[in-house]
Amino acid sequence: MRGPRPRRGGALRGILARHEVALVPLLLLFLALAVWFPEHPSDERGYLELAHNLTQGEYTGLGWRPASPYPSPDPAEPDLWFGPGLPLAITPLVAADLPVQVVRLASPLVLFLAVLLFFRFLRLYVGYRAALLGAYALGSYFPFYVLLSNLHSEPLAILMIVAMLYCLARYVRGGSLRFGLLGGLSAAGVALTRVAFGWVVTAMLVVFLVAWLIARRPALGRIAVVYSVALALCLPWLAFTYSETGRVFLWGNSGGLSLYWMSSPHRQDLGDWRGGAYEIVVSDPRLAHHKQFFVELAPLDPDEQNRRLERAALDNIRGHPLKFAKNVAANGSRMWFDMPFSDKRQSLSTLFYLVPNSLVLWLLVICSIQLLRRRSRIPVEALAFAAFAGLAFGLHAVLAAYPRMLMPLIPIAIWVVVYTVGTTTNQEPARGRRQTHRAGGSPGGRRTRRARVRPPESASGPSSAGGGSRPS
User: Fold this and answer.
1) Region of residue 247 (left: phi > 0; alpha: psi -120 to 50; beta: else)
2) Do the beta carbons of residue 199 and residue 251 sit within 8 Å?
């Protein structure tokens, strides 16, 4: 008796169904946009200079100082304004003396890798179609596109955060130390790429270590392990900053000026970044009320400038707490909606961020409410995702920020939406469906031995209620 006839084109469909091929249009789009989008002011020169100096064994950039109007490069004073993540990543390209147009292609390629890995991450929880739509949603978030024509640290930070989410989920669910170590490496990559996230990694370690000591739940301990690995991997950078400044746990020296702007008690200042010392001292008469202070700071070394900016900011916060609270509220609105600004009138360009971020925020709120109604089924790693996003947003809310600061958190917001919709409509990962089929019976009706499957631990504790499917 002949067996069933094979489906025509089955092999071809299998090739085309591979997520790498299904997502290739996004890669082509990213590359096209990288060429089409015009160049714009960015930190690109600083990253390239740091990468070039790294090839010579130094970590000296353009000589940017927090309160000096003119750069003054000095090999004896390393540039701590940026984290070392992106400069290290592009150092091989710079060492090969590639044209800057080629080096810039790192941004679309890295963003595409983030989309690919995000698809794999979503497949831990939902079916193929939902995961593919989620990956396309991430790749279609068009505020990302402004990052593609110049070098920015955000694409690398997005990739590191997606890798952290994926490895954390695999480690919490399966217990494989390999994923725990990779998750820690990814979290360290985030902190070294965007140094503000160093404080988020530290806070995550403290929060989940305390939670594990109280509850003694293995999943909480695994989350703490990931962030302890991350912090351990960041110790060389912290040791380097300590050796240069004498300050313990210094992640960078850009936070003082950001906090200064956020704390400004002047009525015309809304907490947004209004420029550096050059704008204050030389080019912008609207900032004359800050000029005398920066003139006094200019002769000091970068570390002392940063210390005095921090002290001035804390004095402003203590003296004008309500104004600071208003600035923080305005800053949160700027991250989501690109408004309000102290001296920038709203225009059609504001819609570039207002429209997609309003949609993301609206869906995030609705889906979060839906998840809370069935919180007993939420996987425990979701606590870590929510804590990371909340801590990161809260930290950036008290520092002068732009919508760019929100971008690394967009994958977490999209995960919430895809997970909520996907699990509500009973979409399971392919492996979950195959396991159910093997456990329940065969197509011909012959019953097989039921497999015993340990469900993932939920956020409310070990439970048999399936909060998500097993990792594939």
Assistant:
1) beta
2) yes
**Alpha-carbon span 260 to 314, nearest angstrom:** 8
Q: Angle, to 10 degrees, between the axis of helix 321-337 and the axis of helix 302-319?
A: 110
Q: Which value, in Å, is the radius of gyration of the alpha carbons in the chain? A: 24
Token pair in block for residue 151: 């070098």
Q: How far apart are CA 118 and CA 208, in angstroms?
A: 24
- The series of mean pLDDT values per 10 residues for the chain, 472 residues long, is 50 54 94 84 87 89 70 72 94 95 95 96 94 96 94 97 98 96 98 97 98 96 98 97 92 92 94 84 84 87 89 97 97 95 78 95 96 88 97 96 95 97 70 42 42 52 42 40
Spatial CB neighbours of 155, under 8 Å, sequence gap ≥ 6? 106, 107, 108, 110, 111, 114, 144, 147, 148
Q: Would you give the distance in Å from CA 365 to the centre of its chain? A: 19
User: Checking phi first, is residue 249 left (phi over 0); if not, alpha (psi -120 to 50) or beta?
Assistant: left
Strand partners, 458: 379, 461
Beta partners for residue 379, in sequence order: 458
What DSSP string runs through 296-310? HHTTS-HHHHHHHHH
**pLDDT recorded at residue 437:** 40
